[in-house]
Amino acid sequence: xxxxxxxxxxxxxxxLPLHVTGDPAVRIEWRQDFASxxxxxxxxxxxLPDGHILAVGFLDRGDGRDWRGFSAFLGxxxxxxxxxxxxxxxxxxxxxxxxxxxxxGIVYAGFTSRLGGSGIxxxxxxxxxxxxxxxERAFGGAGYDRFTDLAVAGDETLLIGHSQRPxxxxxxxxxxxxxxxxTTRWERIIEGPxxxxxxxxxxxxxxxxIIAGGIGDDLLVMKLDEEGREVxxxxxxxxxxxxxxxxxxxxxNGRILVVGYSQSWGAxxxxxxxxxxxxxxxxxxxxxxxxxxxxxxxxxxxxxxxxAWIIGQTTSAGAGRQDALLLRVDARGRFEPGAVxxxxxxxxxxxxxxxxxxxxxxVAGFSTAPGAGGEDAFVARLSAPTFAEPAAGFSxxxxx
Length: 400
Description:
This protein is mostly beta strands.
């Protein structure tokens, strides 16, 4: 196996001059930066049983560069306890998500060009609680196959993503369920006359899985049973416009929340949409948030109070060309009035988040401010936002 476990960053970046606006009570309590000569992203943040925060993503993306998946273990105070790079030695290796297993191990999901038949394949990496690799597997065919999320069901893991045949632009749902020992329980492809591109998966109450992604130009929400068979499917959007999924959360009350960016329902360019569904897929509520620019979410996560936190990006407000954007949806599925913007005079994008029990939140993103490379990643803990005062430059509305 070609893995490099490195103790130091490739490049020590200059501290990014990040600032927070939109809520005077919010401050950056700590921050960690990750940088290489190429592009660097954190795609997920996971709370581990031992109290550490796990950040996963990729380093050194770029044409002809050696992309590597990476994970960083952060303490409650933001200090870097350990960092591991995976897949060094050539090609493309990227993590998009991770989860802690009941046995204390960690499973990473993403894609790689080092393993498998040819092209890019879905990639699962198995590690112990400290991030030391115990195994890896590639899944897919000769085309472009990738995993973007995973979900734990008992001691088994569902990997979800898409599969694309050579010469065919359509993407197909690609799901693999693994047993605790890493062997395959089942593998499924669901396709149609147009693209079906899942991005997210959550274990459904009572069994099975909720899947969210895109179908054609619309949002897709789907339920699979324990064996990967389709139970129901919902398509959300208006004809003739583009609606793109970028988040899925299961709420404590059993409802489903999907978020994305939409040009439907009178949007100003791209606005952020939040759609609440019942456990059986009935649409209960739709809400929009946005301004005159381009507003997009990247990820959503629910907290114990039933609220959903959204991280993304905006050009509708802020000091730079694009700022990271933090929002919250209440337990009824309505956007709260306020917003928090994180940025510099350059471009920033929020890519991941993790709400904490005291009302604070850990966010991740990248910045193009002068540093070590093109897009340098950061992880930061923000003090508790209120989201109480209406955000300047934005409007929010509930849809009929």
